[in-house]
Design a protein that fits this description.
Blueprint lengths: L3 H14 L10 E2 L7 E2 L1 H4 L1 H6 L11 H11 L2 H8 L6 H8 L5 E2 L16 E3 L2 E3 L3 E3 L13 H11 L2 E2 L9 H7 L8 E3 L5 H13 L5 E4 L9 H6 L13 H8 L6 E6 L2 H9 L4 E4 L13 H11 L3 H4 L1 E5 L5 H10 L3 E4 L1 H6 L4 H22 L12 E2 L2 H4 L6
Parallel strand pairs: 6-7, 6-13, 8-9, 9-10, 10-11, 11-12, 12-13
Antiparallel strand pairs: 1-2, 3-14, 4-5
Length: 400
Amino acid sequence: MLSATLFLSFAASALAARPFLNEPDTGSVQGASANWLARIDDALAGFAANRTLPPLENIIGLPDFEWAARNVIPIKNYTYYRNGAAGEWSYRNNLEVFSRFRLRPRVMVDITNIENTLNTTILGQNFSAPFYISPCARADYAHPEAEAGLVKAAAAGNILYMPALYAHLNIEEIAAARPENGTTFQQVYLNANDTATAEIFKRAEAAGSKAIVYTADSAADGNRHRALRYGVGSADSSYTPSSWEYYKKLQTMTTLPIIIKGIMTVEDAQLAVDNGAPAIVLSNHGGRQLDGSPSSLEVALEIHEQAPGIFQKIEVYADGGVRYGADALKLLALGVKAVGIGRPMMYANAYGAEGVLHAINILKKELALDAGNMGVADLKKIDASYMKWNSAASNGWYSR
């Protein structure tokens, strides 16, 4: 029998040797008469060689947008979106963790109405689907219209958009670009300067934001090696004091609900409930802050196993690594109310609003198809009975 130490050594070696696929090896059919499949690189190689974006009809999944952006926009700009902390193990885990958890599909269920059940509410606001565009800065690195493409597409697709405080366009410019039917929650970084905080809150309120998203997982600068090589590090580079007492103070400084983004343990999720937070976001900042931090799926599972009542007491959202409808369904099954999509929307914005809307529609369709194949007749009734996991999977020993 192998000793535990030897087993762990073998497992670590296997994980280190296993290649990481930033995009899947699914490929695309080459011509009407072709009878073989090729990798994305082969299928769209001509566009990469000419540094041109493939037609949107050639973009069939969210990972395709990253491939297109990486081959067309300047490498420095792409790196700003793509980078993660240190060795990027948390970035990698965010993507791969979904493959370690299995679904439990049911059959003989009438799922023909599933597309009509995707609609949801987020803090009382009505949307067409249980996902939103996460806060991401510098949309101008993909397209000259910058965040205007994101806010216009979100409104066209009737989903929530959370603009970043360090966006290229300021709060007022994003509000001006937002169609009348659009809804935004303003993301913020805050420090101990109450005057500056009050001004940010006032601007968000005046711009018509329906909530504040307070990013709490960025107390220190991210240790981003890839970003530093291209001079595109974090926009929030200071040590930031924070506490639950400070959060209670913030609640008195605005009439808007304040969501806490960056919850990574069941203990902090419970403290958010205890301190009156209306909602939280399970997030490790896209793997950009602390390498070794858990994925949102792992945190959702921790809450489900140790304190499932949290999902009923407040609204819980989650982001990080979602690239397919099935990924989002695993989070929703555990009790997450809405799922954030960050990098894929930034890559899609290389096409402007049209590309972002295409990404939104792709994910809506995948949600419906995958839910139907799971035997979920009403997406609002999905629960953990559709998920399967064990201690080995939740500790990361399974992989693609």
